[in-house]
């Protein structure tokens, strides 16, 4: 978690006042997924962000926004074993996909025509996703 905390600190993510494990349980129940530990740490301790990290713009949804955003875009409904966690401020969402072997991928996928064939892997964990952003690794290079 040290690397994750260093990146969060570097980009001055806003801290959450109250830890909300009840809300985490609701999200996991809604998505039928066990969220990765590093992402749960982020949700429990920080609010959503809306900023550039490296060369990419990201908007990570707050704990309180995740279920409603996934419902309105039908992400969980259409893409099994995937939950949206934010967007790139354009036409794509950032999501966490967990396969049947519990392998995690952070993906970028279009909001329109929700189909996993359009997924672009942008991290092998939430921490890896932020490391890649911090190292200015472009998503489409």
TrEMBL record:
Superkingdom: Bacteria
Domain (Knr4/Smi1-like): residue spans on this chain: 21-131
InterPro entries named among the record's database cross-references: Knr4/Smi1-like_dom (IPR018958), Knr4/Smi1-like_sf (IPR037883)
Official protein name in the record: SMI1/KNR4 family protein
Source organism of the structure: Flavobacterium psychroterrae
């Amino acid at each position: 978690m040290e690397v994750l905390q260093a990146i969060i600190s570097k980009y001055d993510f806003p801290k959450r006042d109250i830890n909300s494990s009840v809300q985490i349980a609701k999200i996991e129940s809604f998505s039928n997924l066990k969220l990765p530990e590093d992402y749960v740490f982020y949700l429990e301790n920080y609010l959503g962000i809306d900023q550039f990290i490296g060369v990419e713009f990201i908007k990570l949804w707050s704990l309180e926004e995740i279920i409603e955003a996934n419902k309105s875009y039908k992400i969980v409904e259409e893409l099994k074993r995937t939950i949206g966690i934010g967007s790139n401020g354009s036409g794509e969402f950032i999501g966490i996909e967990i396969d049947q072997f519990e392998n995690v991928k952070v993906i970028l996928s279009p909001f329109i025509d929700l189909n996993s064939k359009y997924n672009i892997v942008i991290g092998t964990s939430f921490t890896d996703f932020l490391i890649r952003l911090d190292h200015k690794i472009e998503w489409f290079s």
